[in-house]
C-alpha cells in the first residue's frame, strides 16, 4: 500500500519541478540603454515567470527587475544595474565586502561613456 503512495508523491514532485523549469529561461542582455553607461559584453540574465509577473535576475550583483512582460522586466533590470553602478561608484573606496564584489563585477562589464 505504501508503494503506490510513494509513486504518487514522486509523480507530484516531478510535475512540480518540470512546471518550474518550464517557467524559467536564461537570456543575454546586450545593451544597457543608458546615456552614461554601456555594456562591454553581454551578461546572462535569468528570467522567471510567477503568474503574470516576469522577474529578470542578474545573480552576480543580486540585481533584479520585474514587469508584466519580459521586455518590462529587462528594462527594470537595466535601470537597477545602472543605478547600482552609479551608487557604488560614489563610494567605491568605502564599500563593504559584498558591495565591493558587486562593484568589481560591474567594472568588468560596464564602461562609462565619455562626454
Please tell me about this protein's structure:
The chain has 115 residues and is α+β, with helices and mostly antiparallel strands. It has one domain. Helices cover 48% and strands 27% of the residues. It has three helices and six strands, in the order αβββββααβ. The chain has helices at 2-22, 70-90, 97-109, and strands spanning 24-29, 37-39, 43-50, 53-58, 63-67, 110-112. Strands 1-3-4-5 form a four-stranded antiparallel beta sheet. The chain has a two-stranded antiparallel sheet with strand order 2-6. α2 (70-90) packs across α3 (97-109). The radius of gyration is 19 Å and the shape is elongated.
Task: Give the structure's gist in a few sentences.
It contains three helices and six strands. The chain is of the alpha+beta class.
